[in-house]
Every structure is written in C-alpha cells, then in structure tokens.
Write a structure and sequence with these properties.
235 residues, mainly alpha, Rhopdopsin 7-helix transmembrane proteins, 0% strand
C-alpha cells in the first residue's frame, strides 16, 4: 500500500503512529536489557521483545490502513494478536520456570488453548464468519480458561510457592490480563454487538491504548523482576 501523509486532525492516526514507535523502542530496550540479566531470565525478555517486535510490524500496516481508509484494520489486528497474545501467555509459564517453581506442562497447554479459543472466535465474530453473539460467548470461554489458570489453576498455585518478587510480578501481570484485557470484549460489545454504538475512531484509540499497556507494560513488569533477581544473585 502506498504511504499516505497523516493529517493533523486525525487523532486516531496519531495514536497508531505513537504505538508503532513505542513498540519499536520497547523491542530495542527488551533485547538490549536481556543481555545483562541472569540467563534464567533471558528467554523471558526475548519473548517480551518478540511481542513488541511483532506488534511494531503490524502497527506499521495498521497505521497505513487507517490513514488510507479510516476503517478498523480487523485482519491485521487479529494476525498480530494471534502471535503476540499466546507469547504473553507463555510468559506466565516461563517466569515460573525461571524462578524454579514447580509448574507442569499442562498449565502451558491450558493457557495456549484458552488464548486460541478466545482469538479464533473473536475474529470469526468480527469478520462476520459466524453468529457474532455466539462467537463472543465462545471467545469469553477462552478468556475464562486463562483467568482460572492464572488465578486458581496450576499456574496460580505455583506462583504462591515462589518468592516475593515473583509473586508481586505475577500478581501485576494477572491484573493486566483481568482488567487490561477487559477493554477488548468491551470494544467488541460496543463496536459489533451494539452495531457501532462506538465509532471506529474511538474504538481504535482505545484498542491502541490497550495494546500499548498490555504489551509494553507487561514486558516492563518482567524486566523489573529479571533485574531485581539478577542484582540479588550478584551480591
């Protein structure tokens, strides 16, 4: 698609640009910082960097799509989420393993399963490939599986047995999934089920802000934990 200039009054387009640049900066930061932490945490920071890298590439396309059409880039968003959201879920498993917690592979499978169910049915609903209300309900089942696993399931139980720093980081990450991710189904309800009760401009601004928080802040929490644990190990 040919590059188009961003208009000064296009606030939504501005948010696409800001998030795009922020994802690139976050990628450099996570990959660079991964070189200075304990080897047990390097995979976590690598995954955090991959999340923001994939998001940065897709935001470049989403930004241009919005500027050219002023329409929601549904396909690009879901391709991005289909890659980045499972990676974010894997982070729960990775940090517990890095901290030496006894968490089984079943936790990994349940987190991945819940993520795929949530995203596949979310896309099918927004793309009108099936009944949108039914797709929403099935997608919420996937989210519920994730919430259960990180609060009351094997991952949540393993986190209680970890050190204070891991428990604190794990708790913050859970809040992002519980509260930060609630923005997406709320947007689906307002933009799809309520037939455009919220305009495309407002919906995309909220989605962009949610991606900024849910991806970059998520990675920063892991980075903070990795740095603290590495500093303790060096003393």
């Amino acid at each position: 698609m040919e590059k188009m200039f961003l208009q000064s009054g296009d606030l939504t387009g501005v948010t696409f640009w800001l998030v795009s640049m922020a994802m690139i900066a976050a990628t450099v930061f996570f990959l660079y910082e991964g070189l200075s932490v304990k080897k047990e945490w390097r995979l976590s920071l690598l995954v955090a960097g991959l999340v923001t890298l994939v998001a940065a590439v897709h935001y470049d396309y989403m930004r241009d799509f919005w500027v050219a059409t002023n329409q929601t880039p549904v396909v690009y968003r879901y391709i991005d989420w289909l890659i980045t959201v499972p990676l974010l879920m894997i982070e729960f498993f990775i940090i517990l393993r890095a901290a030496g917690s006894a968490v089984g592979n079943g936790s990994f499978v349940r987190l991945l399963f819940g993520t795929l169910i949530m995203l596949v049915f979310g896309y099918m609903g927004e793309a009108e490939l099936m009944n949108q209300a039914l797709a929403f309900g099935l997608g919420m089942v996937g989210w519920a599986v994730i919430i259960y696993e990180i609060y009351a399931g094997a991952a949540g139980t393993a986190a209680k047995e970890a050190g204070a720093a891991v428990q604190s980081a794990f708790s913050a990450m859970r809040w992002i999934v519980l509260v930060g991710w609630a923005i997406y189904p709320a947007g689906y309800i307002a933009g799809v089920l309520m037939e455009g009760a919220v305009g495309a401009e407002s919906l995309n601004q909220v989605y962009n802000l949610a991606d900024f928080v849910n991806k970059i802040l998520f990675g920063l929490i892991i980075w903070n934990l990795a740095v603290k644990d590495s500093e303790q190990a060096s003393h």
